[in-house]
């Protein structure tokens, strides 16, 4: 049996509006496609850190909607919705992508699969319509919009005189 | 009126390939604009434009020495990007590793029911 490929996802920013993730799986393309598009499979992996999945509905056809909700340990509900724009089993789906926490931001997500020698490569692309949209993504999770704070903090840590007090 | 593209943060700054080339070059140490132009076969105005963007987000710092303007990298400014990327990468890796395990389990089940 081949060793697993844990930790091998590659994240790239090909331009200012897109984030691209690629990853290979030792499985045939049809099975990988199902695992990313059938609710009974998707609910097993949709939550990034294994959070509890409470809603997982997928209407896999052009114009069909999907809705996922998972709940973090502190009780926060994370809800994602969208509509399929392209459905081409087993190689490609394109869908709109909206996260309830970021009102007014609608991205387009695509999944492309390609199989060679029994290995299926996933290319996941998230494209924001404008800078403001993608900025949500790159500034989430405790990273301040203003990088000056971070720099000041780092400098204060490096300064032998010790951390500076605020003001 | 069309809005001009903004180059307001580190993420934007490094999304452009030429600007990444400039940063790669400055890893070697402080360099004059002319040296950057020579090494990267970009035009002087092009290099100056990219350096201005990199200065605005604080990724490079400029000082004058006589008539030369010398640029150096401010690696600390890449820290937020690195931290963010590490978290994002971790989230994707955890999820996709789970898919990996799940696919293996499905295939094991299939192959054992075949035989």
Integer-rounded radius of gyration of chain A: 19 Å
Rounded Rg of chain B: 22 Å
Indicate how many domains the architecture of chain A comprises. 1
Strand order of the largest sheet of chain B: 1-3-2
CATH architecture tag of chain A: 2-Layer Sandwich
- Give the ordered list of helices and strands of chain A: EEHHEEEEEEHH
Number of helices of chain A: 4
Largest sheet of chain A: 8 strands, antiparallel
> In the CATH scheme, what's the topology name of chain A?
Alpha-D-Glucose-1,6-Bisphosphate, Chain A, domain 4
Describe, in plain words, how this protein is organized in 3D.
The complex is a heterodimer of chains A (167) and B (115). Chain A contains four helices and eight strands, in the order ββααββββββαα. With 167 residues, chain A is an alpha+beta fold. Chain A has one domain: Alpha-D-Glucose-1,6-Bisphosphate, Chain A, domain 4. Chain A has an eight-stranded antiparallel sheet with strand order 1-2-8-7-6-5-4-3. In chain A, β4 (65-71) and β5 (77-88) form a beta hairpin. The model of chain A is unreliable at 140-160 and 162-167 (pLDDT under 50). Chain B is of the alpha+beta class and 115 residues long. Chain B has helices spanning 10-15, 17-26, 33-40, 44-56, 79-114; strands at 31-32, 60-65, 68-73. In chain B, strands 1-3-2 form a three-stranded antiparallel sheet. Chain A binds chain B through residues 1, 4-9, 11, 13-16, 21, 23, 25-27, 31-32, 35-36, 41, 44-50, 122, 131, 134-135, 138-139, 141, 143-145, 147-148, 150-151, 154-155, 158, and chain B through 5-6, 9-12, 14-16, 57-58, 76-77, 79-80, 83-85, 87-89, 91-104, 106-107.
């Amino acid at each position: 049996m081949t060793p697993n490929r844990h930790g091998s996802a590659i994240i790239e920013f090909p331009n200012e509006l897109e984030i691209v993730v690629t990853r290979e799986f030792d499985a045939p393309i049809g099975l990988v496609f199902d695992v990313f598009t059938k609710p009974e499979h998707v609910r097993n992996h949709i939550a990034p850190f294994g959070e509890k999945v409470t809603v997982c509905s997928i209407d896999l056809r052009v114009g069909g909607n999907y809705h996922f909700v998972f709940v973090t340990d502190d009780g926060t509900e994370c809800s994602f919705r969208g509509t399929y724009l392209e459905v081409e089993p087993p190689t490609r789906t394109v869908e709109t992508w909206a996260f309830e926490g970021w009102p007014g931001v609608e991205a387009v997500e695509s999944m492309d699969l390609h199989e060679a020698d029994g290995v299926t490569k996933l290319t996941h692309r998230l494209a924001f319509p404008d800078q403001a949209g993608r900025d949500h993504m790159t500034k989430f999770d405790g990273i301040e919009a203003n990088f000056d704070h971070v720099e000041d903090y780092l400098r204060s840590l490096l300064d032998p005189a010790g951390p500076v007090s605020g003001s | 009126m069309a809005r001009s593209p903004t180059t307001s943060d580190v993420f934007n700054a490094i999304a452009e390939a030429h600007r990444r080339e400039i940063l790669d070059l400055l890893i070697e140490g402080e360099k004059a604009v002319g040296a950057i132009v020579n090494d990267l076969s970009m035009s002087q105005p092009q290099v100056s434009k990219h350096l201005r963007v990199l200065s605005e987000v604080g990724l490079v710092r400029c000082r004058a020495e006589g008539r030369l303007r010398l640029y150096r990298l401010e690696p600390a400014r890449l820290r937020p990007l690195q931290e963010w990327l590490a978290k994002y990468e971790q989230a994707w890796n955890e999820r996709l590793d789970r898919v990996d395990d799940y696919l293996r389990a499905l295939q094991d089940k299939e192959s054992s029911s075949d035989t």
